Every structure is written in structure tokens, then in C-alpha cells.
Amino acid sequence: MARNDPTDTGGLFIGRRPGTAPLRYRGQPTPAGGKRRRVDAVLAAGILVVETLLCATLWGPQPAAWLWLGSQLYHETDSIGLAILVAFVGMLTTILGTLAVTMRLDRWWKIVRRASGHEQEKGALERIFVISMGVALIGFVLWFLVLEGPSSSIAPR
Amino acid sequence: MGLLDYYKQFDDIGESEYNAGLRERRAREKALALEHVPVLDLSSTEWPELPNAEVVGASVYQARGRINGYPDPDAVPVRRALAERHNIRSSQIVFGNGAAELARSAVYLLASEGDEVVVPRPSRARYAAMVARAGARLVQPAMPGGMLDAEAVLGAVGPRTRVVILCNPADPTGTYAPAARIGDLVARLPDQVHTVVDESYVQFQDVEPEDSVMSLVEAFPKLVVLRSFSKVYGLSGIRAGYAVGSPAASGLLAGLAPALGVNALSQATVLQALKVGDADIRRRREAVIEQRTRLLAELSTMAVTVPDSQANFLWIRAHEVPGEDLVARLEGSRVRVAPGEPLGDADCVRAAIRDRHAADRLLWALREALRGSAVETAAG
């Protein structure tokens, strides 16, 4: 057990590490019965899946979709500037919007997890974000180096 | 409980929200701590400050010296210093363990079983106890308005009267009888009567020079004047005082002297206080006179009666509030005063005069106490 009493630490006050605060409720929650808990566990898993899928869209589908939209706009208007602007602004908007939605979902995931009987202190968003980014990075590297290849666009194939 | 409410009960309090609650609670605690006002104790008349460090040092130095030996039984250096100060002979001075102890010795020495001791009323309760212990009878003529009434005192003197004790300035009224009036009274007392004038608070009066009454001992061999180091000198803890009498009253003065003298620490302390304490005494005297003048002026606008005090306290009678209630109301405002009943008049209270802040608080507390009375009267 960590000691933070200055009399035990030679006069130094050793505080709690950031992010290790105990879980504090406004009041003592009243958990439901076993059936409701099982339903909540399934619901929590569902929320986690949605959260994961939304995070996954950040690294491929959303940028690709906006690039495609930008290309369509360029085709229609013959304006490269407008196409780039729409593609990047749209990309940022939907990415930030998705992050906002996933943060809310993560909060509800924690709540539903707790309702299902788990002492869920932290959300899963950080881990999902990092893992999905890692998967996307690996996928990109495989695509770039193996499937497509780093060949010059000028040089003839 | 609705579905949303059911889930929301599992929501946690965020760190910032939790810390905001803690900060709010701490702010409340701090505010409460600031609101907590310590009691201002004005019930006692000794000086509230600690003595001069040099004076304390003299006592400590003495304590580290030859404390295994007896002290100087005649306190020669102290008496010599006092004699120089009052311009009298040191043989006229007896150094004792406080003015109260010397007064008690005087009563024991002069009054016997069945004799009478005259003490104007109201006066210090300890005089009654001294007289009772000596087996004598206490006679207490009233002092109308707190002023010494020579005719009343003379009227109370009978064939068995041996001692008249006067406190000047009087405790608890604070009134001062000038030397001329004391001299007139002493001159008219029968031969068998000695007069003891307790001048414990004399340094606070600004009517006449400090030694005016003391100088009467040259003319009246049966007059003894007592002084104390407990009040303006702020040395109550060491119990030191002295008696001054006529050169012709050597027998009486020898009888007042404590057996084997006063302890060496007290002698050293008093000697140092006489050497270095004058600046402190002057400052304290000026502070009391300033605040007394101010308090008397302010109190004259309130529904109270206060005799013209020449001491470091005021004897306050509220017109609408009985003394006991006044004590309780002032205590409710965190100001403690001495109840009047043990001092001779249950309708009054005695409040010590301290610095400006203490005077402000006393005035505020008195206004609050009297306002409560006015509201009750109006409601009634």
C-alpha cells in the first residue's frame, strides 16, 4: 500500500498519481437484479462495438469518402481549390463530430458497464482509439509497401 | 425510477466537479473560522500584555543564581529605589507580597475580635473577606454615585472602629478622591482609627500628581498607602506591592513586613521594572486615559450610567437591563465583563479598559445589548 503520510515519508507529502482517483458516485447506486444486469452487459458490449466501428471509420472510410467527394466536386466544377477545401473541412468536421459522439458513447458504456455489475473506472475510448490507429497504420503500411508499392508515378510501370 | 434515472445513478462525479465541491467546503470553513471571534475578556483589571523581556530576564537571572539562600529580608535595593522615586525615606516603605497581602496584614494587625473596619460600598470583595477572617465587623457606608462621601464614612465610624480602608481610585467604580478630600477625612477621624488607602490603580488617574495622597503620610501618622505592581506594571504573577507610612509609624510598618521578606525573584523583577519600566508605564497610562476619555464620551450617549472613572475600568449600569442580563448579553457578543454582584452592586458590571480595538468591541457589544433591550421594550 502506498504511504503518503509525511511522517512515513521523511516529511515529503506524496500525493495520489493523476488518473488514480477512486470512483465517486453522487449517491449509492441501487443495482438491479441478475437479468437486468445481463441485459446491460449485452448493451454495454453493443455500445463498445459501435464505438469501435466509429473509431475505425476515422482512419480510412471518412478520409476516403471525403477525398472521393472532393474528386467528384473537382470533376463537376473543375476547381481544385474548392475540392481540396471541401474535402479537408468536411473531413475535419466529421472526424471531430465522430470523436464527440464516441466520447458520449464511451461515457454511456461506462455507465452501462457499471449497471451490469462491473466497477468500471475508466472508459475504453483511449485504448480503442490507439488500437484502431495502430491497425490502420499497419494496414496502410501493408497497402503501401506490399499491395501498391512505392513506385514513382512518373516512371512507367 | 425511470430508465434514464436508473442509469444516471451509475454516473461518476468528475475530478473537477469533486474538487470544486472540496474548494467550496474549504471556503466555507475559512469563512466560519474568520467569523469565529475569540472572547474579549474585560472582567479582570490586571494589565493584559506580557511584561518587558528585560524584567522577565532579571527574574530568570536571579533564579539561576543563589536561589538556595534566603532573600534579602528587608529588600533594601527595592526600597531604596522606591524611596528615590517617591522622594521619601526607605524606612517609610515596606515591600510585601502584593497590596492585598499588605492590606490583610494591616487589618490583622490593627483590628481584633469585635472591632469594626469601615469600607465604603461598593468596594473590593476581598476586603470583606479580610475583615471577616480577622474576626472584626465590616461596616459599609454607601458611596452615592460611586464618589467617596466623607460624611458617610465619618458617620459609620464608631468607638470600636479601628481601620478605614479606602480604595483610590475605587474598585469597582473607578472614582478618584483627591488628596485634599482624603486629607480632610483622615484629619477628622478619631485617634484610634488608622486609614489604609489602596492605590493599586493610582497610575491611571490624571486628576493630580501620582504621589499626592502618598505625601499625606508625612502629616498623618495613622495613614498607610498601598501600591501594587499587579496593575499598570503588569506583574500580577509575582505578587509584589508596598506600603508607605509616616516616619513616626515605624512600629506599624514593621508589623506589615512579611516574615523573612519577599522572595528573591520578585525582588529582582521589581527592581528591574523600576529601572527600565517607566516608558512602558507611561505608554500604558496614556493608552488607558485616551480610551477611557473616548469610552466615557461614547457611553454618555447611551442608556447607561457610568461614574467618572480614573482607573483602567468602568463601572457600568444600564438603565433598562439588569446587571446579570447585561453580563449575559455582552457574553453573547463575545465580550466578558465582571458581574457587579460580587463587587457590591448587582445592577452594574465592571469592564476593563484596554486598547482601541477592545474599546471598539466593548462599545459595539454594549450597543447590541442595549438595542436588544429597546426592541423588547418596544415589543412589550
Helix proportion of chain B: 40-55%
Strand-pairing-aware structural class of chain A? mainly alpha
Oligomer: heterodimer
CATH superfamily of the largest domain in chain B: Type I PLP-dependent aspartate aminotransferase-like (Major domain)
Radius of gyration of chain A: 24 Å
* Gross morphology of chain A: elongated
Q: Termini distance of chain A?
A: 65 Å
Examine the coordinates and then state which fold CATH places here, giving the name of the CATH topology of the largest domain in chain B: Aspartate Aminotransferase, domain 2
Overall pLDDT score of chain B? 92
Largest sheet of chain A: none
Query: What's the overall average pLDDT of chain A, rounded?
Result: 86
| Approximate strand percentage of chain B | 5-15%
- Give me the number of helical elements of chain B: 13
Structural description of this entry:
The complex is a heterodimer of chains A (157) and B (380). Chain A is built from 4 helices and no strands. Helix content of chain A is 66%, strand content 0%. Chain A has a domain at 34-140. Chain B has 2 domains: 40-48 and 279-370, Alpha-Beta Complex (Aspartate Aminotransferase, domain 1); 53-276, 3-Layer(aba) Sandwich (Aspartate Aminotransferase, domain 2). Chain B is 43% helix and 13% strand. Chain B has 13 helices and 13 strands. Chain B has helices at 3-8, 15-35, 53-63, 76-86, 99-110, 125-133, 150-156, 179-188, 250-256, 264-276, 278-299, 323-332, 356-379; strands at 40-41, 93-96, 116-118, 137-139, 161-167, 194-198, 223-228, 241-244, 304-305, 313-318, 335-336, 338-339, 348-352. In chain B, β12 (338-339) and β13 (348-352) form a beta hairpin. In chain B, α3 runs antiparallel to α10 (264-276), α5 (99-110) runs parallel beside α6 and α7 runs parallel beside α8 (179-188). In chain B, 44% of the residues are buried. Chains A and B meet through α3 of A and α1 of B.
